[in-house]
Specification:
With 196 residues, the protein is of the alpha+beta class. It has two domains: 78 residues, Alpha-Beta Plaits; 84 residues, ACT domain (Alpha-Beta Plaits). The protein is built from four helices and eight strands. A hairpin with a 2-residue loop joins strand 2 and strand 3. It is flat and about 55 Å long.
């Protein structure tokens, strides 16, 4: 089950001799997938800088930021189709740039808990978009409520409020959304350390 705890995001040093790429993998869940993916990168002298992995339904999905020497990245890209077939995974690799410093702004944690109904993510993200707020991370989870077993939907997002975003107006708009959609929404400043 994916964790909904916020994670502290570190600014990683830029290695001028390395190229960076986002490696995605999806396929039927089985034991050993993470080890296979880690070995795929390590065998080419690469490093996994950041990653997100989860089981969704019966599928395992992973997104990883990897760093490798430019020549090794080219080799990995050329062999990706064969590697994917051997591992039983759909693999994709997209070159990107080195991790950047955190965006300027105020990090906040937004949480929403409610009965599971269609359109919750759309409704909440529409409010954020209207305020020009960037979503850094977003996780959702549906699970049965204690005692009743009713499906409960939980969303947790790390967002960055720019210097011109009025927090009071954002809270007012979220409060209106709470009333309209029968949601329980909280918005609080993000802490540097993970919450227990």
């Amino acid at each position: 089950m994916p964790s909904l705890k916020p994670k502290a995001k570190a600014t990683l040093p830029c290695m001028s001799t390395s190229s960076f790429a986002v490696l995605t993998a999806i396929g039927p869940d089985r034991v050993g997938i993470v080890d296979d993916l880690a070995g795929l990168v390590a065998a080419r002298g690469g490093n996994i800088e950041e990653s997100k992995m989860a089981i969704l339904g019966g599928e395992f999905a992973a997104v990883m930021l990897v760093s490798l020497a430019p020549s090794h990245l080219d080799t990995l890209m050329a062999s990706l189709a064969d590697q994917g077939k051997a591992l039983g995974l759909r693999l994709e690799l997209k070159q990107t740039h080195a991790p950047a410093a955190l965006r300027e702004g105020r990090p906040y944690i937004l949480e929403s808990v409610s009965l599971d109904t269609p359109g919750i993510v759309l409704a909440v993200t529409a409010v954020l978009k209207a305020h020009g707020i960037n979503i850094e991370e977003l996780e959702t989870l549906t699970q049965p409520a204690p005692w009743t077993g009713a499906p409960m939907f939980r969303m947790r997002a790390t967002i960055i409020l720019g210097p011109k975003v009025p927090v009071a107006q954002l809270k007012a708009d979220l409060a209106q959304l709470e009333a309209d959609k029968d949601l329980d929404i909280s918005l609080k400043p993000a802490l540097a350390a993970p919450l227990e």
